[in-house]
Recover the amino acids of this structure.
């Protein structure tokens, strides 16, 4: 990739009618001497690709010598056979990213690498820190000059500047100071440390490979691809230290009474084959569809999903309502982020780049159309139009999340409050705007019933405005708040490969 390419932004997701909240990141870590650790990281990141498609990176420790490769693009675009071969070692961490804090640029790709006590640490973060101003003050004049606009580098700098000799102590002393959502893996001198905020906002789990080596990953689907056995979630406020064949779990910060696991992980973000807190994501979505059917039954000829994320809820809706399930929209499964901009003509048909109606299946039928969420509403309007054009006689929209009325500050890009259609309009106004015959959302109580756990276990702030972790006023202004920070000129000309320490 040339220097100029590095700074090209991927085409706006809107061009491809992607009206969904954007997931933040996926992380992975392992210590597995004798194994090809970069290949383990590659396939784990491959399984976690849904959690971030803008950049990918792997850092490997080879007898204390750390090398990191990261770039813009999908995992399979960033890493080729030769690249992986150049990343040999005994321990590795990896990261896939969608920008949350900080804009889309190379310097914000992870893992972040910083010098600490003459060694290098690499860090990969899923979430969003809310007390960044306070952390800058804590580090004060001894703070490291930051090279990126991401809060993750700030987090790495906090740990790097901690005077404790042992990396575990540096992490343990730093954790209580960090406020916000963080599921982190860190690599330093052959040790991988994973840690999670005391609210437990983002997932992080640990598993064991067949050869007894341990792995950490955002979701259990990444363990499955490696043949690793799921052991447990890293609990809120817990730290997991992995060395050669050993796992040490330490409760560093008391878990908060009012927990904050992101309920949207179950609705949309996590992969359906992942199991989180003992609940399979696909089954959770089936149950959301069943609840939705009980709450808002309608007479129709067929239930169809907006694929793929609407599919499990549509199956549940069909099961509970007795209305037959069918496919009415075909998704191009290979569509991802692209650097190629469509021309004006293609732009007009943007939605068909991703979804195309099966006219033969839907012509002359009244449809229940199940989707997981509506963010801005622009795509939904085009979808409804497309279904009528393909011959549907009625379109009844059923949404397996409650209306999204508030922005997320914990690592998800849900757009600003004013861009969220449900923050400005009633359900009936939205129905009129998107042009459907009827529109119903699952209720918060119905969602809770589907998950079988109390509301206090979850963050549901994008539906209620009740944020489990206080949000400083300045943070509410913009996710690009670090853009004004003076940049280290060296950061503007990054090398593709970072050989460090
Ligand atoms: Fe998840 Fe919404 Fe809470 Fe963000 S605000 S963590 S998207 S539930």
């Amino acid at each position: 990739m040339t220097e100029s390419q590095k700074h090209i932004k991927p085409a706006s997701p809107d061009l491809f009618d992607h009206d969904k909240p954007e997931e933040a990141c996926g992380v992975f870590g392992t210590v597995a001497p004798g194994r090809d650790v970069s290949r383990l990281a590659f396939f784990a990141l491959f399984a976690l690709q849904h959690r971030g498609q803008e950049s990918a990176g792997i850092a490997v420790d080879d007898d204390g010598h750390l090398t990191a490769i990261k770039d813009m693009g999908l995992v399979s675009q960033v890493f080729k056979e030769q690249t992986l071969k150049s990343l040999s070692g005994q321990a590795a961490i990896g990261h896939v990213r969608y920008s949350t804090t900080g804009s889309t640029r190379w310097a914000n790709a992870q893992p972040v690498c910083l010098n600490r006590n003459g060694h290098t640490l690499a860090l990969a973060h899923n979430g969003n820190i809310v007390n960044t101003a306070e952390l800058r003050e804590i580090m004060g004049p001894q703070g490291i000059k930051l090279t990126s606009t991401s809060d993750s580098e700030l987090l790495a700098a906090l740990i790097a500047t901690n005077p404790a000799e042992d990396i575990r102590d540096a992490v343990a002393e730093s954790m209580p100071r960090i406020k916000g959502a963080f599921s982190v893996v860190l690599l330093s001198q052959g040790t991988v440390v994973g840690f999670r905020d005391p609210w437990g906002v983002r997932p992080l789990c640990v598993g064991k490979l067949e050869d007894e080596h341990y792995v950490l990953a955002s979701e259990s689907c990444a363990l499955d691809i490696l043949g690793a056995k799921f052991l447990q979630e890293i609990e809120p406020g817990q730290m997991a230290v992995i060395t050669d064949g050993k796992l040490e779990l330490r409760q560093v910060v008391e878990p908060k009474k009012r927990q904050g696991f992101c309920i949207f992980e179950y609705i949309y973000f996590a992969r359906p084959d992942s199991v989180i807190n003992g609940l399979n994501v696909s089954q959770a979505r089936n149950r959301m569809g069943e609840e939705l059917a009980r709450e808002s039954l309608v007479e129709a000829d067929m239930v169809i999903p907006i694929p793929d994320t609407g599919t499990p809820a549509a199956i549940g809706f069909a099961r509970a309502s007795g209305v037959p399930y069918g496919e009415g929209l075909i998704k191009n499964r290979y569509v991802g982020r692209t650097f190629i901009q469509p021309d004006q003509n293609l732009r007009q048909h943007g939605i068909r780049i991703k979804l195309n109606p099966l006219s033969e299946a839907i012509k002359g039928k009244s449809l229940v159309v199940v989707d997981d969420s509506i963010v801005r509403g622009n795509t939904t309007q085009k979808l409804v139009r497309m279904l009528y054009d393909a011959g549907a006689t009625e379109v009844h929209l059923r949404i397996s999340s409650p209306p999204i009325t508030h922005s997320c500050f914990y690592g998800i890009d849900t757009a600003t409050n004013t861009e969220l259609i449900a923050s400005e309009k009633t359900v009936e106004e939205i129905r009129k705007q998107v042009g459907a015959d009827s529109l119903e959302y699952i209720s918060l109580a119905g969602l809770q019933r589907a998950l079988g756990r109390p509301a206090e276990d979850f963050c549901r702030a994008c539906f209620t405005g009740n944020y489990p972790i206080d949000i400083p006023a300045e943070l509410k202004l913009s996710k690009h708040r670090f853009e004004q920070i003076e940049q280290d000129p060296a950061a503007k000309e990054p090398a593709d490969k970072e050989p460090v320490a």
